[in-house]
Amino acid sequence: MSGRRRFGVSLPRAVADELDSLAMKMRVDRSKLVEKALISFLNEYRHYLNDHVCSGVMIIVSSFDAGMVASLLDKYKDIVMTTTHIHLNSHCIEIVVVKGPSERIAEMHSELSSLKGCSVRYIPFATVHGGLED
Questions:
Q1: SS3 category, 38
Q2: How many distinct helices (H) and strands (E) make up the chain?
Q3: I want to staple 94 with a disulfide (CB 3.0 to 4.6 A). Which of 52, 60, 86, 111 is the partner?
Q4: C-alpha–C-alpha distance, residues 65 and 98, integer Å
Q5: Contacts of 38 (CB under 8 A, 6+ apart)
Q6: Could you tell me if residue 117 is left (phi over 0), alpha (psi between -120 and 50 degrees) or otherwise beta?
Q7: Contact between 11 and 37 (Cβ < 8 Å)
Q8: d(C-alpha 44, C-alpha 105), whole Å
Q9: Is 67 exposed, middle or buried (0-12, 13-18, 19+ CB in 10 A)?
């Protein structure tokens, strides 16, 4: 028995078509592309699964009053190491370096993600395949 497991996934046709197009452009099969995407997704959300101390970059893009984001960042000042605020067209972009208990980072990530008009991406420094040590 190999170290792989098969299972079926249903996707909207437009997503499946885009996946096929990207796989062709990248010259990899669909399964490999889905595997890469899932590894990236799991790495981003791993802090929801196990308690640990982690660090990473949270990228926050919002198209509304940045005051709401700023007040949330202040609420989490115990884990916020530094922030950079950028305006691009009608968007506010915050680049935030965080370090602390995984449950606190997950809480911040979740709270920011729940804000209407706010998109959040967490990129941990330590990855599945190694990376910066805490």
A1: helix
A2: 4, 6
A3: 60
A4: 22
A5: none
A6: left
A7: no
A8: 11
A9: exposed
For residues 122 and 126, what is the distance between their CA atoms, to the nearest angstrom? Answer: 12
Beta bridge partners of 61: 93, 119
Q: Are 53 and 101 in contact (CB under 8 A)?
A: yes
- pLDDT tens for each residue of 75-114: 999 999 999 999 988 888 999 999 999 999 999 999 999 9
Number of residues assigned to the chain = 134
Cα gap 45→119, rounded to integer Å: 15
The count of other CB atoms within 10 Å of the CB of residue 54 is: 22
Instruction: Report the distance separating Cα 15 and Cα 49, nearest Å.
Output: 27
The tokens for 40 are 């990236």
